[in-house]
Amino acid sequence: MQRKESILLDKEKIIELLKPVRDPEIGLSIVELNMVRNVAVSGSGVSLEVALTVQGCPLQKTIESDVRTILLSNPEIETVDLKLGVMSKEEQTALSEELRRRREENKPKGATEIAPGIYRYGKMGIQHIIGVVSGKGGVGKSLTTAVIASELAKQGFRVGILDADITGPSMAKILGVEGRAGANDKMLIPATTRAGIKMISMNLILEKQTQAVVWRGPLVTRAIVQMYGQTEWGDLHFLLLDLPPGTSDAQLTVFQSVPLDGILMVTTPQSLAHMIVEKALDMAKVTKVPVIGLVENMSYLKCPHCGERIELYPRDAGAETEMLRSLEKLGELPFDPEIARLADSGELEKYSSDEISALVSNVRKKMLSMTPVSVSPIAWKGGE
Hints:
Elements: H1 11-18, E1 36-42, E2 45-52, H2 60-72, E3 79-86, H3 89-105, E4 112-115, E5 118-120, E6 126-133, H4 141-154, E7 159-163, H5 171-174, E8 182-183, E9 188-189, E10 191-192, E11 198-201, H6 217-229, E12 236-242, H7 249-257, E13 262-267, H8 271-287, E14 291-296, E15 300-302, E16 309-311, H9 322-325, E17 329-332, H10 337-344, H11 354-370
Helix pairs in contact: 4-11, 6-7
């Protein structure tokens, strides 16, 4: 295979190529952290050492893979001789002090550091903060979040949505929000939907909505928390967090960092979904986050001709365990093709149904019973 005309490789070029490689735990460039050492170039071969921040770093293979991938993607480099070392104790101490200094300088206003780089934020003028979660994907969690928020807005409440599904954001599309979110010196300015819902999403931060977010776990969790704590939400009655599915670092960090009043569990009426919901419930129990109740989505289908209820999933009474039965079911939402049509056209705020109204009424009653005293000066609509 004929190689392209050679461009002179030198130490500076190699270091420049490595700047996008980040330490997956600290989240900073390995070049900025002074982890890249002893760079040498010989023809089309490169040798270098990467000094790990700690001995036996559990993510050293990730760092090694990222370094090799980015160097070998350059057509001028054919071989990479990479050695892994470790920083001296003096360097580790100096790095710890520098990271501590940076955290102090960049400490979010009104936040308390509960672990290195992890902050516990305040309510920031928001009456109720609800996490919408599911143990697995595909149960309609984002659509459920959107229709609840839309119904609350129709009732006159000030509502916000944080689309926390960083790698698979959909909220901007289904609510018809285009363009990019605004920003001032330190804060993001949320976009506003046609119905007045404030919203922040990765799709409003990226240059284009189809751009992939290829981030590792620590960067994803940091982004979610920053989108909450560094957004000018203003005074809201409700902020809904559409969390990614599962029970990973993302959910754990949100449960620790965001002052959730409770979480809504979304599931479908099938044994597999119920089993995985229990994992999310167990996580909520461990982290001591209150569970508001359960929303059963795609619960049934209404016959378009006679209105008869058609069950889409087999109803196995034995499938619900004691843990699931202990949850209050706040609503059963039907499978409605109209939701899909409106979501595809970015007009989901137009959707309304008796089932959605009943669900939102139950959620409000449950929230008021859990937090009967206002936590901010915002007045409830109608003096509630």
